[in-house]
Amino acid sequence: xxxxxxxxxxxxxxxxxxxxxxxxxxxxxxxxxxxxxxxxxxxxxxxxxxxxxxxxxxxxxxxxxxxxxxxxxxxxxxxxxxxxxxxxxxxxxxxxxxxxxxxxxxxxxxxxxxxxxxxxxxxxxxxxxxxxxxxxxxxxxxxxxxxxxxxxxxxxxxxxxxxxxxxxxxxxxxxxxxxxxxxxxxxxxxxxxxxxxxxxxxxxxxxxxxxxxxxxxxxxxxxxxxxxxxxxxxxxxxxxxxxxxxxxxxxxxxxxxxxxxxxxxxxxxxxxxxxxxxxxxxxxx
Length: 285
Hints:
Layout: H1 7-13, H2 16-23, H3 25-31, H4 33-43, E1 50-54, H5 60-69, E2 74-79, H6 82-94, E3 100-104, E4 117-123, H7 132-140, E5 143-154, H8 161-174, H9 193-201, E6 206-217, H10 223-230, H11 235-242, H12 247-261, E7 265-266, E8 269-270, E9 272-282
Parallel strand pairs: 1-2, 1-4, 2-3, 4-5
Antiparallel strand pairs: 5-9, 6-9, 7-8
Helix pairs in contact: 2-6, 8-11, 8-12, 10-12
């Protein structure tokens, strides 16, 4: 395996964060069901195609692609998290998808076979690179001529109450953390569509575009379970760690989030409006 460049993100995803996502895999896949549908519908994997899934996590996008391309196709997922890769492999075996495989690695430096893939996809897996331009240049080499790139990233936090409500509750309780670089590796790093299209253009690919899309997040479970999930994953967990949040602080944040998330509850279900950025490009070389 090539060297992992972003050691901080790798360390986090191979420790508690990765374990949290494995434990909550079913819930998180349900939460992001519309994101997966948007990704796969736009990418439209075809029979017999070779598909590369960047930042595959627990494998939802890889497995969805594998189910579309048939036994003659190949769906390969890559991620820096060993716990998530192991979980994805187990899911592929359980679902009988022999055309799905997974590799541990950092896509910024991974030695992909050049011109191997017809399609490259990602559901929230590309915002964590130490050097996004270098990463996309490396990944683009793996696409065949006319190969497609389709990925989804979060739009700005102001358009995503699932993020802003817990973060505001935590900062109200604990105070502001250190100002963050909006382009630093993290969930919101690709909020600026023009910046990301510029990164894609730097790879030499053509037809580079981005658009923002309205979706809904669909967290399963009771309202109390949804509120607990909102403060158990995402940026608020990092903020709580950075500011030394205690269990009492977490309880207070949960109570604030309960009130703020209540308007999104209807008929026993919670649907939270969200906006994501959908990006596309095509390999010209």
